[in-house]
Design brief:
With 418 residues, the protein is α/β, with parallel strands linked by helices. It has two domains: 143 residues, no CATH class; 230 residues, Spore Coat Polysaccharide Biosynthesis Protein SpsA, Chain A (Alpha-Beta Complex), CATH 3.90.550. The protein has an eight-stranded mixed beta sheet with strand order 3-2-1-4-7-6-8-5, sandwiched between helices. Helix 1 packs across helix 10, helix 1 runs parallel beside helix 12 and helix 9 packs across helix 13. The longest helix has 37 residues. The radius of gyration is 23 Å and the shape is globular.
């Protein structure tokens, strides 16, 4: 039993370190070459662009969202906005109507059917070369669309492109945690694009060439993760997905632990269910790094949360066991549950490996933050919140989502909004 526990602990650390080092080396190998290819010039041509904004009960943020789109530094004649009200029960529709006088804006009102139906409601009306979306709680930097177009022009083989997403004005400790986490996501998305391995096209300002929908069809329900499913559908057809790390998009992160866990349960649940549907991508050499490394490690990360959580519970049990020795002396017998005995594990090695994982994770976050133009502060509130809390809160949604997927309990797009 001690040998099995020791092997499990070391395997988890080794695989995690291997993957992080692999990502770092891949980034260092490709980033300079990509920067030289992209250059700093403005686009020589501005293609027609359509942005779909699906809305459900977003009266608090939708006005700022639309205003940020209208302020884009892009030729107005080449930009169309489709604002889709998905059966909101608050004042969202009334706010959308305020923008109908803008020549670029089309407002669509429909019954509630979920985010994918809101996106699909606009698709038949669009004949633009590039089709994108923007979540109604997100805001774009003025140059974001120009950066999207510039990157696509430098990579004509790319059929879709993702931006860099940043938490907008964090207030709570959980929003600060997300700001660091989104820094890591910016690094991962940039590196995955080098490896042709992006498997999510996030709702905040991802774009597709019109041919993608012509060939693949519209968005699907996809367990309320349509942005993940369409990326997997593209990868299945070997369509390339690029990343524009200079296209900065700001989003409102959940402010409370409850809202954060709800959001991440939906994301993780959707990933698990979609991976069942697209399991043929796993370990498939024809899909390169995505099939051999990226998707398998993503699944490993979810499964490892169960192991770490179990080890933590066993450690807590051991502490309780020691504290209750007095009770045992007077006749109270603890059940004979297995306990993790750190005597059998070289704790100095475990501590060293833990520190290596933490330090390397922080390095990757710093790189991601630098990609999005953020000042690097190792003692910032976001980094402190991430290091102190993430390892404890992430298992909450990873384990819950896995159980929900196993028991066929569905999630909802609206459920995380309360």
């Amino acid at each position: 039993m001690p040998d099995a526990i020791e092997l499990t602990v070391y395997t988890l650390f080794f695989v995690t370190l291997y993957f992080e080092v692999f990502l770092l080396l891949s980034f260092l190998e490709h980033f300079g070459r990509h920067t030289r290819t992209l250059g700093g010039a403005q686009p020589t041509r501005y293609p027609s662009v359509a942005v779909i904004v699906p809305c459900y009960n977003e009266e608090a943020t939708i006005r700022e969202t639309v205003n940020s789109l209208l302020a884009l530094e892009y030729p107005r004649a080449q930009l169309s906005l489709y604002l889709v009200n998905d059966g909101s029960t608050d004042g969202t529709l009334a706010i959308l109507r305020e923008f109908e006088h803008e020549s670029q804006v089309t407002v669509i009102d429909k019954e509630n059917g979920g985010k994918h139906t809101a996106l699909n409601a606009a698709l038949p009306l669009i004949d633009a070369e590039l089709i994108g979306c923007l979540d109604s709680d997100s805001f774009v930097a003025p140059n974001a669309l120009t950066e999207i177009v510039r990157t696509l022009a430098a990579h004509p083989e790319a059929m879709a492109i993702t931006p860099a997403i940043i938490i907008h004005h964090p207030q709570s400790i959980f929003q600060y945690l997300q700001r660091a986490e989104y820094g890591m996501s910016a690094f991962i998305r940039r590196t995955f694009s080098f490896l042709d391995s992006q498997f999510v096209t996030p709702g905040p300002f991802s774009f597709f060439r019109r041919e993608v929908f012509a060939e693949l069809g519209p968005y699907r329900h996809a367990y309320n993760t349509e942005d993940l499913e369409i990326a997997l559908r593209m990868q299945e057809r070997h369509m390339k997905i690029q990343n524009a790390h200079r296209a900065h998009i700001y989003t409102k992160g959940p402010a409370t632990l409850r809202a954060l866990v709800r959001q991440r349960i939906r994301w993780t649940y959707g990933f698990i269910k979609n991976m069942v549907d697209y399991r043929h991508l796993l370990f498939a050499p024809r899909h390169g790094h995505l099939g051999i490394l990226v998707l398998p490690f993503s699944i490993f990360g979810i499964l490892s949360s169960f192991i770490f959580f179990g080890l933590m519970l066993q450690s807590l049990y051991l502490v309780a066991d020691q504290q209750l020795l007095v009770w045992q002396a007077v006749g109270f017998q603890l059940p004979g549950l297995p306990a993790l005995d750190w005597y059998f594990i070289n704790t100095h090695t475990v501590i060293l490996l833990t520190m290596l994982v933490i330090v390397l994770t922080c390095v990757l976050i710093f790189i991601g933050k630098s990609l999005t133009g953020h000042r690097i502060n190792p003692l910032g509130r976001d980094m402190l919140a991430y290091v102190a809390l993430y390892g404890f809160v992430a298992p909450l949604w990873l384990i819950t989502a896995t159980v929900n997927a196993a028991t066929a309990r569905q999630t909802s797009w609206q459920s995380e909004r309360s």
